[in-house]
Amino acid sequence: MAEFIMKDLVKKAGREDEFYIESAATSTEELGNEVYPPAKRKLWEHGISCKGKTARQMRASDYGRFDLIVCMDDWNMRNMLRICGDDPECKMRKLMDFTERGGDVADPWYTGNFEATWRDCLEGCEAILAQY
């Protein structure tokens, strides 16, 4: 969800030339799958399409490709560090750490509350856009 929320915010701000936004999985469970249907529906409610997106695995080479690598929670952070080996340039951050409250994005996989996840992702993405 965060990938497409961020792309939408960047487009609305007229700053598409300044950003390259792409998401990747830190685990293998969903590789090749489309966006989870309830997440897709939540994005659609807000006029945001995620058509054509399938999950890909994060690679160590992604560290050199991106200026900022954002994750949703501590579990993702551990996996990113495992995949990349380290974070010598301090590129890895949790999305909510860009906000005043910090913490993890609400995980709808366990709660089914995609509205809470939407709000967290929107708040975090708006904060990134404001800071960059």
Question: Could you please describe the fold and organization of this structure?
Answer:
By secondary structure, this protein is mainly α. The protein has a single domain, classed as Rossmann fold (3-Layer(aba) Sandwich). The chain is built from six helices and two strands. The protein has helices at 2-12, 37-45, 62-65, 74-84, 108-111, 114-131; strands spanning 69-71, 92-94. The protein has a two-stranded parallel ribbon with strand order 1-2. Helix 4 (74-84) links the parallel strand 1 (69-71) and strand 2 (92-94). It is globular, with a radius of gyration of 14 Å. The protein starts with a helix and ends with a helix.
Structural class: mainly alpha
Average pLDDT score: 95
The share of residues in extended strands comes to under 5%
Envelope shape: globular
Using the coordinates shown, work out and report the CATH topology: Rossmann fold
- Main sheet: which strands, in order across? 1-2
User: Gyration radius, to the nearest Å?
Assistant: 14 Å
Distance from first to last alpha carbon: 20 Å
Write down the oligomeric state: single chain
CATH class: Alpha Beta
Query: What's the CATH H-level homologous superfamily?
Result: Response regulator
The secondary-structure element order is HHHEHEHH
Question: Any low-confidence stretches, pLDDT <50, length ≥5?
Answer: none
Largest sheet: 2 strands, parallel
